[in-house]
């Protein structure tokens, strides 16, 4: 972090304070859904699911934004056992307060369209994008694969807290949560009254099925393992699973066109998670030739940039399969980024990425309120001067 460079303790304190200010100061407490346990709707370790809710006010009192947390998946028992003892597998390990920024911010200056809505961040602790449902629990591992039950139990709790009176509702999410917001989009709409204006927003959830740099189908076999481990097939879209191998229906490119509810896709064409884990996963790069490039796009060799341009072409082909209906929104920038709705820097600041002079927060608002059907795809990297490219440090943590 930046403040670690300052040696004087007071300077540290000052800079640390500024970092806190930047997150806007809004912290929201956790709610555990205790009654979900009786329904078997639990995190990997059997603990209750949880969410953070900041109440709407003023004209937003009957509008609900439900945002699903991301955090990858676990694809086999070993990986799920590792996850079980982290905040991504147990509500016992979750922070009780979370900063709400970007799409979750409560001031018009940082979130012009949704600041006074009810804003909910649903915690992710099942490892299957809320799709798993295995009845049996192996006593040797005590793993609970119950993501789909968690989804329902949390929605029922929110409906009872007032969401059943929603006039406007958005299901959103980032990464694995962005994928879940596509997978559950129509079922979210079905839970709400007929008169509610319901739309879904997927941030960095459009994972594509392409071969990695070694020519292997890495992500396809990984997603197949996720779907098999969590027995997710029965909770994927029937209109997709009836026509192809169920595991394929985890990929938006094979199922998103069947979603009836209006859907907005925010994704970087060079999504940094996808470049790091789909195009050039460690398995496909045994000599670490991709390491420097993966951590900072400025380090990429010309041949690597060419592979990334080819990835973008595949991304756009996969994306266009969802059709160009005016109910579909798209903000496809050419930044090296992953998740752009919760980070204030991406969502709505003076220097946030813009397409056609429009920042993400405005594009989503224009689409939600039917002002314009925003569908814009950026020119190829490095053409967009407003791009914010993420940089990862040697421990693979995100830096700004
Ligand atoms: C489980 O998946 C991980 C990747 O998440 C892999 O490294 C490991 O080898 C797999 N383990 C087994 C037993 O298949
Ligand atoms: C850019 O915005 C203008 C005015 O809002 C609109 O007419 C035009 O179609 C947009 N162009 C693209 C590529 O989205």
Automatic annotation (TrEMBL):
InterPro entries xrefs: PAE/NOTUM
Secretion signal span: 1-25
GO BP field: cell wall organization
EC numbers for this chain: 3.1.1.-
Domain of life of the native organism: Eukaryota
An example molecular function term from Gene Ontology annotations: pectin acetylesterase activity
Keywords: Cell wall, Cell wall biogenesis/degradation, Hydrolase, Secreted, Signal
Keyword check for Cytoplasm: no
Gene Ontology cellular-component annotations: plant-type cell wall
Subcellular localization(s) per the UniProt record: Secreted, Cell wall
Major localization class: secreted
Similarity field: Belongs to the pectinacetylesterase family.
PANTHER family, alphabetized: NOTUM-RELATED (PTHR21562), PECTIN ACETYLESTERASE 8 (PTHR21562:SF93)
Function statement: Hydrolyzes acetyl esters in homogalacturonan regions of pectin. In type I primary cell wall, galacturonic acid residues of pectin can be acetylated at the O-2 and O-3 positions. Decreasing the degree of acetylation of pectin gels in vitro alters their physical properties.
Name by which UniProt lists this protein: Pectin acetylesterase
Species name: Rubroshorea leprosula
Lineage: Eukaryota, Viridiplantae, Streptophyta, Embryophyta, Tracheophyta
């Amino acid at each position: 972090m930046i403040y670690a460079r300052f040696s004087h303790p007071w300077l540290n304190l000052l800079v640390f304070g500024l970092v806190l200010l930047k997150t806007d100061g809004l912290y929201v407490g956790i709610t555990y859904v205790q009654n979900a346990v009786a329904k078997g709707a639990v995190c990997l370790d059997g603990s209750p699911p949880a969410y953070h809710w900041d109440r709407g006010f003023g004209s937003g009192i009957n509008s609900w934004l439900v945002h699903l947390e991301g955090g990858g998946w676990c694809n086999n028992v070993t990986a799920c056992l590792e996850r079980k003892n982290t905040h991504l597998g147990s509500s016992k390990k979750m922070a009780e307060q979370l900063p709400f920024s970007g799409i979750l911010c409560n001031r018009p200056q940082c979130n012009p369209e949704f600041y006074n809505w009810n804003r909910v961040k649903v915690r992710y602790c099942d490892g299957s994008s809320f799709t798993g449902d295995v009845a049996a629990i192996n006593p040797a591992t005590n793993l609970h694969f119950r993501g789909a039950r968690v989804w329902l139990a949390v929605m029922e709790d929110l409906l009872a807290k007032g969401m059943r009176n929603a006039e406007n509702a958005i299901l959103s999410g980032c990464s694995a949560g962005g994928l879940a917001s596509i997978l559950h989009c129509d079922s979210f709409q079905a839970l709400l009254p007929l008169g509610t204006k319901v739309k879904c927003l997927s941030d960095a959830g459009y994972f594509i099925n392409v071969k990695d740099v070694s020519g292997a189908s890495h992500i396809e076999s990984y997603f197949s393992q996720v779907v098999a481990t969590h027995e997710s097939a029965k909770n994927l879209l029937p209109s997709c699973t009836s026509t192809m191998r169920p595991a394929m229906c985890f990929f938006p490119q094979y199922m998103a066109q069947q979603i009836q509810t209006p859907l907005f896709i925010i994704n970087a064409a060079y999504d940094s998670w996808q470049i790091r884990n789909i195009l050039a996963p460690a398995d496909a790069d045994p000599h670490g030739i991709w390491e420097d490039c993966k951590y900072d796009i400025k380090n990429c060799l010309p041949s690597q940039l060419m592979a990334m341009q080819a990835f973008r072409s595949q991304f756009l082909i996969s994306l266009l399969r969802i059709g160009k209906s005016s109910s579909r929104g798209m903000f496809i920038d050419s930044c090296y980024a992953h998740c752009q709705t919760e980070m204030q820097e991406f969502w709505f600041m003076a220097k946030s990425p813009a397409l056609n002079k429009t920042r993400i927060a405005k594009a989503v608002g224009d689409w939600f309120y039917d002002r314009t059907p925003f569908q814009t795809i950026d020119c190829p990297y490095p053409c967009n001067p407003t791009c914010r490219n993420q940089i990862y440090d040697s421990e693979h943590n995100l830096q700004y």
